[in-house]
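Question thread 4412

I'm putting together a teaching handout and wanted feedback from people who do this every day. The idea is simple: show students a protein as raw sequence, then show them the structure tokens that encode its fold, then repeat with a second protein so they can compare. Below is the first pair exactly as I plan to print it.
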Amino acid sequence: MKFPIANISIKNWNPEEDVLLYILLNKYIYRDDNQLYQSFFYNKEFVDSNGDIYLLVDQKKSTSLLRKIFKFLPNVFKIELIFKKTKNKMDIENVREFILRQIGKMPKDANHANWIEQIKNAKKIQEILDG
């Protein structure tokens, strides 16, 4: 699995949410929030930077005593996401179309047009997902 990866199960990304709920830069999340996990991650499909599709099947919570004690601090509590590779794949044009559709719903700011242009000109899936 090659990161970053994008959630393709949620077809309408909420523009009010942090984009990092939909595009993951690594296999960890840093919040112990079961509702968030169920809504955005569990049993969802993600496309990786190679176009391979993975299903998120489980999580492994941190067992470190220090992480548990200080979990109230940002980015201390760590949950490893467990993925299972499917036999499905997306090509670059399908990934590009999906991401452009999602970005089109987001609030326009100074970087919005530049971001869209970078995605349109990307030659690899990784370049699309890196944004």
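The second pair follows. I'd like the answer to focus on this one:
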Amino acid sequence: MKTIELNLLGKAANKKKQRKLKFSIIFLYIAIWYFSIFILINIYETNSYMFSRYKNETDKISSELASTRSKLARIQFLYNKYKKIKLKENTYIESLYRPGKWLNKMISISKAIPDNITLDKLSVNPNATSIKDEKIILSGTVAIGEGINSLKQLNSFENNLKSNISLMKDFTKVEIKENEIITKDNRSIMSFSVGIF
């Protein structure tokens, strides 16, 4: 027996179904479109954030490199200067401690001694490395008596040493380090020490 299908709703039901289907497709299309835009915006913002972080880091590294380069250049400059000074220092020390050089220094010191001064001791400090260290220490006495101004004699000795160009060529200053009146062989004398730096 053959079945016969009757469409009682007619064309109106078909149109309703088509409208529903069309609405669903448009809604789905709009939803996909909005979702795609949302994803693209998120990707853009993430990339922008990552780019800004990366740029900040690269800028920081660049500034550190620039700072390090200037420090390295300064260290290199100071090291080269140090090498030159060290080379000159070795030459200076070699020439300073030659016997002939010291003979001239001793002659210069002996010429600077006034009549009423006696030198008892001369010490050389070979380990003097700074300008604050004495290279030579002279110790002695000044006679005290009528018509003798012991302090004037001591100051005269200091000035004679300072004004001696041959002596001071290798030194920077002369300084009276100490002086005091003492008794020796029942007579008063002034003992002193002078540093040559």
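Top answer:
Good format. For the second protein you could add a caption like this: The first helix runs from residue 11 to 96. Residues 70 and 76 are 10 Å apart (CA to CA).
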